Every structure is written in structure tokens, then in C-alpha cells.
Amino acid sequence: MSGIYHDYAPFYDGSGQMRFAILVAHYLGDVLARHPAPGRRALDLACGTGTLALMLADEGWDVLGVDGSQAMLALARAKAAALETAGRASFALGDMRSFALGPQAAPGLRPSSYHLATCTYDSLNYLLREEELAACFANVAHALAPGGLFFADMNTRHFLEHDWDPVIVDESEGFVQISQSDFDPASACSTMVVTGFAGDDVRGYQRFEETHVERAYPPETVARLLEQAGLAVEAAYDCFTHQPPYEASQRIAWIARKP
Description:
Mean pLDDT: 94
Radius of gyration: 18 Å
Strand order of the largest sheet: 3-2-1-4-5-11-10
Number of strands: 11
Structural class: alpha/beta
Shape: globular
Number of helices: 7
Strand content: 25-35%
Oligomer: single chain
């Protein structure tokens, strides 16, 4: 995961990526109506530029956003400084595999005190080994208060293998992004090379390139690792619905609770 979301960070929101966080925020409201959280303190893991964290803060939540990219966190803090929200949002550097446990715990994190933890936009798929996913879930369990809820989404193998277009070109004023993806059936990993060009013919162009690798996990593996971490699975939904996943589901929303 190192080296990604650095050069891309200044263009992340403008390239349309923040739209997913807005969709998730509305869906999360529906999920919480079915699976209530016991309080209003939230942890947003892999928070990126802070869109979801700030939308939760605007609804009165006190939110800590944690991310592994300093560049993304700088944008999140700048957005927070420009907004007035009913709740509070703060941001800290942290790794998904060690943000709550051990010497690399995220600054300001309070163990066993969060009523809601979120990890969205297939961030969990970036954990390429089962041991890493298990470590992330253990950290989530350590951070949640008793009765606290974990909400996360993950891309499915069907999506990575069949539905993710091999080449995607996104163009907007002053910015072009080319995404090239390749799926390896043996490892269940999709490798996407993102190349961006920002600027114009007068000022010239800035080019960046990042490689993003995501792994698809069988749903039964995810459920087992959540349970082993001490998180009781309450539901797995075909994401953005309240229906169970099916063979062609592109994304699964996981809802689990710390007893």
C-alpha cells in the first residue's frame, strides 16, 4: 500500500472519487436504522480526504479519521478547517493493520470507546494477505466500545474478474486519468495502474502514475476472520441494498458488532 494516494491526492476529489463517499454516507444512514450504534463516537478507517468523516460530523458525530497517506490527510484537515459541523472531526496517520494495537497506534485513538467504525471504498481489498485482514479486524475490535458496530464494504471476485473494465479513461477540464486493470485468477488479485495528467497546453502537464492492487476474498473467509476477531456478523448485504449478496454482486457491505 506504500506509495499510493500521494501524487494522486491533489486530484482525488476533483476526479469524482468523493461521490462514492457521499453515496456511502446516505446508505450508512439506512444501515444504522436497521443496526443502531450505541453512541455517536465514530472511527473512519482509511478515511482518505475525509468526505465521509465530515458528513458524519455534520450529523453530530465526533469522528476520528485514520489514513495511511499524509497527503490525503492534509486535504482532509483543510476541508475540516473550512467547515462548521455539529460534531467534531479530527484526523490521524495510521496503518489499517496496526492503527489501534501496538507502538504504531494512531495518535489520539482511544481504545474500546468508538460506537461506530467504518472502512469503505474497498479499502479492505488492499490488504493482500489473510493475516493482514485478520490484523485489521483485531484492531477494529480493540477500538470499538462494547456494542459498537463495524461497517465496511469489499469488492467481490466477480467484480474484479468480470466487471472491472480493463481500460477506463476519465476526462475533465485540466485532468485526464487512464486506469488499466488486469486480474490474476490464481491470486484473486486485480492490479490497476492509474496514470494521470493534470494541466493545460499553456502551463504544461504534470504526470503521475500509481499502481493499486486489490485482492478478492471469499465471503466465508471474511465472515470467519470477523468472528475470530471477536466481531459478531449481523448482516452481509449486496451493497447499497438490504438484500443478501448473490453470485454477481459487485460489492458486499459487512455489518458486524462487538459483543
